[in-house]
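Hey,

Quick one before I head out. I ran the complex with thiamine diphosphate overnight. Inputs first:
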Amino acid sequence: MKPEYHFYKADPGQVMAELGRDKLIEFLTKMLLIRNFEIRGESAYQHGKVGGFYHSYMGQEAIQAACLAAAGPNHWFTTTYRCHALALLLGVTPNEAMAELYGRSTGNAGGRGGSMHLYAKQMLGGLAIVGGHLPIATGAAFTIKYLKEKNKASFCFLGDGAVVQGAVHESLNLAALWSLPCIYVIENNQWGMGTAVERAVALQPIAENMAKAYGIKAYTVEGMNFFDCYAMFRDILHEVVETSRPVIIEAVTERFRGHSISDPALYRTKEELADIMGEKDPIQFLKNALIEAGMLTEEEFKRIDSEQREIVVAAMKFADESPWPDPITLEEGVFAPEDQ
Ligand SMILES: Cc1ncc(C[n+]2csc(CCOP(=O)(O)OP(=O)(O)O)c2C)c(N)n1
């Protein structure tokens, strides 16, 4: 059973008026790029083109898309191994991202990092140790404060499974003690691998309860609702840069796939999935709202979707035709003191 959430709600009409049609279509397009990237990336994996792990962001697109729509890219960002969307939103091209999944030298990390380790100028990772990126995000918030940078925050996305990890609590404690402009976003997709959140986290709602322990504010939002996420990120960013106090957000969402591509997710029923992937789908939700508001037609939606599919298909071709990293470069980019 879901806990009693106190959701941050927005007026969709107000958000539509504020963002305007062009921006809304721009972010719907980005969400469709992410969706198509994940669908085709998975199929490339099934065809043996992608090695390692594959964690799909399908179902969660509204959260990071709305964050970027509200805050823009001029901040620090960190996330987990479920990192394709954030990289694409921060300007990594589909070609670079796909080539990284394929392990090619033209990839975003030269083919060394693979699916879990994408980067951008403002994105410190794509980091695979659960909870291990919170100290990095907190450190980024420290630099903002130390350098007295204005209108800048450190956004840190983590999963519900990470909140019981020690590094998470040490980070929150320091951020609260030192008043750091860090925005911790728990993307609660209900599962940490195959473990349901209520079997892993003792006190729920998560953010509301955790925040009390550190004397900071918490916000909870419906993570599949682009409008609510946008308004919340806009307001919180304003508050955080004014006060330099950290904040915890819980974005309640669903992942469409298993934990990773090798997880058939047998712990969920077909009915549950159909419910999540129907009208609750964040892309369908935004599409329906825009059609209802007269800002989009079904034909336009289909055209945008197929354009994004073509971009991703071209990225797969680019990746497939790209060279493997030269073995001579193996030691490049590796940090190790020379005399040891
Ligand atoms: C320190 C550490 N422990 C365990 C793992 C193995 N592991 C990888 S993902 C994961 C579950 C994390 O779930 P959650 O934080 O809810 O994120 P989600 O995958 O749902 O996005 C675990 C236990 C790991 N990578 N790092």
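The mean pLDDT is 96.

Talk tomorrow,
K.
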